Amino acid sequence: MSESEARPRAFSSREDLDFIRAIVAADLERGTHGGRVVTRFPPEPNGYLHIGHASSVCLNFGIAQETGGLCHLRFDDTNPETEDIHFVEAIIDDVKWLGFDWGDHLYFASDYFERMYLFAEHLISEGKAYVESLDDEEIRQYRGTVTEPGRPSPYRDRSIEENLDLFRRMRAGDFPDGAHVLRAKLDLASPNMRMRDPVLYRIRHARHYRTGDTWCIYPLYDFAHPIEDAIESVTHSICTLEFENNRPVYDWIVENLPRGDSPPAIPPDSRPRQYEFARRNLEHTVTSKRKLLQLVEQGYVSGWDDPRMTTIAGLRRRGVTPESIRAYAELVGVGKMENRTDIGKLEFAVRDDLNQRAPRVLCVLRPLRVVLTNYPEGQVEALDAPYFPHDIPIEGSRKLPFSRILYIDRDDFMEDPPASFRRLAPGREVRLRYGYVIRCHEVVRDDAGEIVELRCTYDEETRGGATPDGRKIRGTIHWVDAAQSIACQVRLYDRLFTVSEPNDAEGDFKDYLNPESLVSVEGARIEPSVLRDPAETRYQFERLGFFWRDPMDSREDALVFNRIVTLRDARVGAAAQATADRAPAAPATATSRKRGEPKARAEDRKTSGPDAAAPVEPPRSAALQARRQRYVADLGVGDTEAEIITREQDSADFFEAGLTGEAPPRAVANWVVHELPRDMGDRELQDLPFDAPRFARVVSLVDGGVISGSAGREVLTEMIASGGDPDEIVERLGLRQISDTATLENLVAGVVEQNPAKAAEYRNGRSGLLGFFVGQVMRRTEGRANPEIVKRLLESHLEGDA
Question: Using CA of residue 84, residue 86, residue 89, residue 90, what is the dihedral sign?
Fold first, then answer.
């Protein structure tokens, strides 16, 4: 490989490197491999990539990118019976979609079949390999056990000439499958069973998808893998932990390959080394290709790209972004011990990404007709509605049509509601999101007694949701205009399995498939603004979750939306799922679960959307009720947050102790309810390794703009794990937000200068491009720039240069 092909550099920081990257960094410092870094991602094309492969893709390509090295994409296609060009094309597409590029370095094991064969003959000529004529069962018996050494096969001492003759006849097709294999002659007494004369070649009279019928003998992985790495001058051959015992075989083959400047020899300076990291098995999934194939072939899912599958293709069709998968890979990290990863981490990474990019729109899943009897017939007005909340530095809005007849969601009305119900009921008022306050006066039923219409009035003084007379409105619901909304189908996807470890559950893993992993809702209605958007736009359907148009089934005249992920982790509780004053519910949360009570599982209840279980109001003492009222009336805490905090004495006391004056009470309440439960697990508040004032300090650092919200969550996660001082953690992790105007001014100027076309479009009226420029600056500062200052500087710079 020429020096121009790979220009390695040291990692930008040696701090907090995972152990694989630490090995690479040390090799670079020592000049091992001549200072080169070459990794590879070697999938077998016998299925689609899944979420487990994503970690390997990100690790191998990531190391190459971070060091200026190379990463090869290589298909280990040595098994003609299971491999197919379709899988090759799907894998290439998935790796590209994840954001990685291998340039000219695309390889196939089948490219090297002739060289591998010649290497095998070389080993035979050196007396280091022989043709074995025992069958598979006999080979196992002769290999011994973990407590007994192996015995030499009767064919182990065949002459070199006889072995070469037999091996050449194997290639010529003179023998049926299973008649002979080629074995390395290693150590039958080795405690490592892999070293007891491993099989290198077997006979398979099967057509290969690339080489056709040219070959009827095929190398095994233990033989092919090190040869491929050596030919390509790979430096760091990174694989998963199950290949740890194969490493001595890998090293032996590499050491015994002929070296030189002409084929079939390998390059003289090529000395690849194998390193193993642990799989991160994901809960509520299976990643075995055999089991995934069963799901596909037996019709349990619609295909490899079914949105319920954790294949990359399935996640992609569901609407998950490549950025969130890369973030998930970084979140779970690289370790030496296998474990199961909470699927909530993947869902968190998806939510965290979409929350910053998905415009908010209104969609009603199960429409209930509402007639505003005092609204002028034939009148239509346009209500202004922002796409993003104020804490996301992206601008843009749309007009929502509003007229006499609307739709609300059926679950937002109850004829005889409990006291805790905060939505619409006879004689009650509710706020329409971005619209007016309405009051229900009459319920209309059909002949079967089903509610088909609500007769309501609107208060024309409350446009935008305000109440000039100061009266409190208990809830806010979403809606769409009946005449101008668009009919659509909404697919509510959930976890594919009802248990966290389907591989380990008793019986067949398919017995634990979740019957509600897909709920298809027909006749939903969505606001008309979505028709103007690109098909790949991801949305947050307010109060419902994140969605996008299905890329296969959706059409302009028949929209189909897939739910990508819910708004909140179901295990945090239905209350944390809620937004915009939606009625809280009582399932187990960090503030409502009793000591010793098991955590409610997502598979045991419906927790989001219109199928959510009816909320249960827990008993509340008079003292806690008084606190609840004071928090709302005097401290400005939201109704929902105050209700949750005062369910138990412990949570109310924790919140009270956090009112140190450093952060506004409303901000402290939001973090107690929505952020603190994320990583608490089974612990109670009194078991946390920090007190409420330190928790409030985290909130104040975010509220004061010292750190970003995501950085605040990172600090809180570390504190939950091991305590510590928030300010010290911020400094140690380098999380302080960049607010220096001069520094940011230079970054802003550079971003605008490098994007002249988009700057011109902005000046010509495309104000929505401000979000693009903000995003560019945020990426350059790894999210540490103060977004408000960035936004202000960009506006000044773009408008000043006009």
Answer: negative
Residue 108 makes CB contacts below 8 A (sequence gap 6+) with: 74, 75, 77, 210
- Specify the 3-state DSSP secondary structure of 283: coil
- Using a pLDDT cut of 90, give the percent of the chain over it: 60
Beta strands in 573-683 (DSSP E): none
CA distances from 265 to 40, 215, 257, 754 (A): 20, 21, 7, 48
In the sheet with 518-526, reading across from the earlier edge strand, the strands are 360-361, 538-541, 545-549, 559-565, 486-493, 518-526, 363-364
User: What's the pTM value of the predicted model, to 2 decimals?
Assistant: 0.70
Alpha-carbon separation of residue 523 from 418, 488, 563 (angstroms):
28, 6, 16
pLDDT digits (tens, 9 = 90+) for 261-311: 777 889 999 999 999 998 888 888 988 888 999 999 999 999 999 999 999
Catalytic positions are: 44, 279, 289
Q: What's the half-sphere exposure (Cβ side, CA atoms, 13 Å) at 406?
A: 33
Say which residues have a Cβ less than 8 Å from residue 351's Cβ, sequence separation at least 6. 546, 565, 567, 568
| pLDDT score of 620 | 67
Is the confidence at residue 617, as pLDDT, over 70? no
Could you report the per-residue pLDDT of 372-396, keeping only the tens digit for each?
999 999 999 999 999 998 878 888 9
How far apart CA 76 and CA 227 sit, in angstroms, is 11
Which of these, 744, 742, 754, 728, lies nearest to 781 by C-alpha position? 744
C-alpha span between 761 and 424 (Å, rounded): 44
User: Do 265 and 230 meet the contact criterion of CB atoms below 8 Å apart?
Assistant: no
SS3 763: helix
**Do residues 514 and 387 touch, judged by C-beta distance below 8 A?**
no
Tokens of 331: 């979140």
CA dist 536 → 316, 584, 772 (Å): 11, 32, 16
Average confidence (pLDDT) over 240-254: 94
Round to whole Å and give the CA distance between 259 and 271.
10
Measured between alpha carbons, how far is 382 from 278 in angstroms, rounded to an integer? 56
Q: What's the average model confidence in pLDDT over 305-328?
A: 95
Q: 427 — alpha (psi -120 to 50), left (phi > 0) or beta?
A: left
**Pairwise CA distance, residues 201 & 185, whole Å:** 13
Instruction: State yes or no: cis peptide before 610, omega within 30 of 0.
Output: no
- Give the contacts of 239 (CB within 8 A, at least 6 positions apart): 274, 275, 276
The radius of gyration computed from the CA coordinates of the chain, to the nearest angstrom, equals 31
Tell me which H or E stretch contains 277.
strand 273-277
User: Can you give the pLDDT at residue 9?
Assistant: 62
Q: Outline where 31-84 has alpha helix (H).
A: 51-67
- Give the pLDDT score at 88: 97
